[in-house]
Amino acid sequence: MFKAKLSDPSLLKNSVDTISELIHEGLFKIDSESLYMRAADRATVAVVDFELKKDAFEEFECDEETKIGVNLESLLDILKRAKKDDSLVLELSEDESRLKISIGDGTKRDFEMPLLSISEGEVPETKQLDFTAEMELKSSVLSKGIADAEIVADSVLFKAEKESLTLVADSDSGSVEAKTGKGSEDLMEIKVDEETESRYPLEYLKKMLKASKISDVASLKFGNDYPMELKFEEPGQIKISFVLAPRVED
């Protein structure tokens, strides 16, 4: 049995909106503590790790671990029908073949969507990654930097020095550079073991940064020509993180 009620539907709606940019069908795992998903996109360029904790819900019942496969775009279409002040109830049908979604308290609207049979598949292991640059910064710094870089290129170089982060993009169309230093209100923490730089595709970064709706602070980690970890979190409630493969150029 699984049934849960959210008084703030945007927590799930914004998360699914972001995840569906990378993954079309997903397998949620539900236990007594949270609703969770870990998956890779088809090209295995990015891995997403999502958790909506029990404490984020107004009500949460799950008497045994359950896995539900859903079409994320179809789920998002339903979640978009929920407005800010609506409540959202998720419940499995009795035969556990459909997900029931109720929106609203006064006038209640009920939706049902079929569950999909989805195998867990192979997801690259990311826990053992060893980063040389780690920092916490305003999500807006990354959003602006990515938008600027997109004017001239399709990838961006992240450069970390002892007390600063620089985003650089260049092509035949021109170049752009954005630097944020320690002491700025935009860069709260930075730890750099050695000067570090790595290039990443803007296409993926743009999709991942949609998760900034969850938190205006991002945790960023990367290494030299090495994967990046980008995490947005409201402690005790919700976490969504990504690991993105670098674009290594000859």
Structure description:
The protein has 250 residues and is mostly beta strands. The protein folds into two domains: 2-114, Roll (DNA Polymerase III, Chain A, domain 2), CATH 3.10.150; 133-244, Proliferating Cell Nuclear Antigen (Box), CATH 3.70.10. The chain has four helices and 18 strands. The chain has a nine-stranded antiparallel beta sheet. It starts with a strand and ends in a 6-residue tail after the last strand.
Q: What's the quick description here?
A:
With 250 residues, the protein is mostly beta strands.
Features:
mainly beta; Proliferating Cell Nuclear Antigen; 2 domains; DNA Polymerase III, Chain A, domain 2; single chain; 250 residues; nine-stranded antiparallel sheet; 46% strand; five-stranded antiparallel sheet
How are the SSEs placed, and which strands pair?
Elements lengths: L1 E5 L3 H10 L5 E6 L3 E7 L5 E8 L5 E4 L3 E6 H8 L8 E5 L5 E6 L5 E6 L18 E6 H12 L4 E7 L2 E8 L2 E8 L5 E6 L3 E6 H7 L8 E6 L5 E7 L3 E7 L6
Antiparallel strand pairs: 1-5, 1-7, 2-3, 2-6, 3-4, 4-18, 7-8, 8-9, 10-14, 10-16, 11-12, 11-15, 12-13, 16-17, 17-18
Helix pairs in contact: 1-2
